[in-house]
Amino acid sequence: AAPSPRPRATMFGVQTQATPGHVLCCMCGMGISPNPAGMCVDCIRSQVDITEGIQKQCTVMYCKECQRYLQPPKHWIRADLESKELLTFCIKRIKGLSKVKLVDAGFIWTEPHSKRLKTKLTIQKEVLNGAILQQTFVTEFVVEWHMCDACSRAAANSDQWTACVQVRQKVEHKRTFLYLEQLILKHGMEANTIGIKSQPDGLDFYYGNRSHGMKMVDFLQNVVPVRARHDKQLVSHNANDNSYNYQYTFMVEIVPICKEDIVILPFKASQGMGGVGPLMLVTRVGSSFQITDPHTMKQNWMDASQFYRLPFKASAVAKQFVEYVVLDIEPVRGAQHGQSGKWLLADVQVARVSDFGVNDNIMSARTHLGHHLQAGDTALGYDLASLQIVDPELEKYRRGMQLPDVLLVKKSYQEKRRRRRAKGVNRVWKLQRLEMVNDDDALGNKTVSREHDRAANDEEAFMQELEEDEELRGNVNFFKDENVPVRNARAGTETDDDDDDVPEVPIESLLDGLSLMRTQGAIGEDDTDDDEEEEDHEMMD
Q1: Would you state the pLDDT for residue 502?
Q2: How are beta strands 510-511 and 478-480 bridged, if at all?
Q3: CA separation (Å) from 60 to 139, 145, 302?
Q4: What is d(CA 306, CA 540) in angstroms, rounded to the nearest whole number?
Q5: CA within 20 to 30 Å of 405's CA: 153, 173, 194, 324, which one?
Q6: What are the pLDDT digits (tens) for 474-518?
């Protein structure tokens, strides 16, 4: 029974003060304060275990090479011992905590070499008629060493490969592979490679699994016009289980036609496209390439299968450009001419830059650059009169057809870029590059030096093309160059208004945090491709 109230004397008289009553525990008979369960704490704990269903032992994967933990299914995080990040990671790995309220958590010290992590957790839960019980328990984490894919690729021997994708293009430059390199980086297609090797006419990608090589071939077919074939070579044979181990080779050949090349279209192909040509300019390249008749503005697309049915070569390439000065330009008016996308047909009078002060030769031509050129501008094009294109396909066209003397391709900013460089204005952006091995041992010193000069020229031409082509920039990631301040790029432009129209990559499109290490770029990639993996050996039926 509850005790009677105790009297207390005050200035207002005698008042009674209520004291908390006590009841007996229904299990052990100990006097306790009343609670909804009617039992003492010890008896409640003996009857109810609120940690039931909570995982007491877990296993975590740890890569000792990069000191990161695997957060399933595919993310690797870096956390120091007894840090808040590691405590959060461990708590998330415990199953069953969602059913209780977590009050406190902390680490229990363990030896660093014990491969054990222990956490002390305090939880609360409502039990037995609304009584709230608090309990503390320990969870142990067993640390298992497991090398992540990024470290596996770094430590792998590139000679021990299962699949090799050989990408080739029979042209004199590597601008196509520079663009392809940026596409691979943007889409993360380099993640599964165990090695990349540069060849004089292309790249070799090595993989530890056949499915990864097939995935790269599918990617290449979606971004550039190619034809592919594959082969396999027997490496070993196990007579006990009748299994065979192969090495797979995929040969991917890119169409030897590049942007800004001019081609003589085969007569049969011309008839199939409505009688265009024969002289065509390559204006765009993707999974197929676009050819444009610069005199009629007719455009057609041709894929790799169409090209290899009636193959042809480029009659002239970008390194044969001649610089011209535009003397006069007038758009062509008429029902059959007009705008075609960003092009406009126009008649133009030009003169070679090299002829200034030497002769007064003026050439007339028709160009598709009516939107881009004005009198006084410089343009790059082909001097067809000097090239003397001889192609058997030309004889199949109607008699009396003559090629023009000049074919303009694009507006030139070479002189303006020289002036900007002279003022110290440099690019504020840079591109990420693949980590690849160059096979320079088989080449002489002079050949290596010549190849390096050619690579530098190709890279500069590719960067200029990125600045001039807004559509091409959409497929490339640009990163801020921390070594070049932004104000350096604007230096000198305020004093010379003639250089303001030089195309540039907008500063707003630049990304931060460029990492040239493929291991960093691979963080967060899917490390478990078990569902898509194919066996590296085949069973003989």
Answers
A1: 78
A2: parallel
A3: 13, 9, 53
A4: 38
A5: 173
A6: 888 888 877 776 555 455 445 455 556 777 877 777 776 544 444
Cite the beta strand spans of 309-359 per DSSP E.
314-316, 322-331, 339-340, 343-344, 346-352
Q: How many CB atoms lie within 10 A of CB 438?
A: 13
Beta strands in 180-337 (DSSP E): 193-199, 202-207, 226-238, 243-254, 262-264, 279-285, 289-292, 299-302, 314-316, 322-331
Tokens of 381: 């094009």
DSSP for 357-387?
A: TT----EEEEESBTTT--TT-EEEEEEHHHH
What is the spatial distance between Cα 93 and Cα 156, in angstroms, rounded to a whole number?
30
Rg (CA), the chain: 37
Q: Are 174 and 91 in contact (CB under 8 A)?
A: no
Phi–psi pair at 309, nearest 5 degrees: -70, -35
- Cis amide prior to 225 (ω within 30 degrees): no
457 CB-contact burial (10 Å; exposed 0-12 / middle 13-18 / buried 19+): middle
φ/ψ region of 150 (left if φ > 0, alpha if ψ in -120 to 50, else beta) reads alpha
In terms of Cα–Cα distance, which of 277, 294, 299 is closest to 366? 294
Three-state secondary structure readout of 65-107: CCCEEEECCCEEEECCCCCHHHHHHHHHHCCCHHHCEEEEEEE
Q: Do residues 107 and 118 touch, judged by C-beta distance below 8 A? A: yes
Residue 483, burial from CB neighbour count under 10 angstroms (0-12, 13-18, 19+): exposed
| Over residues 338-366, mean pLDDT | 81
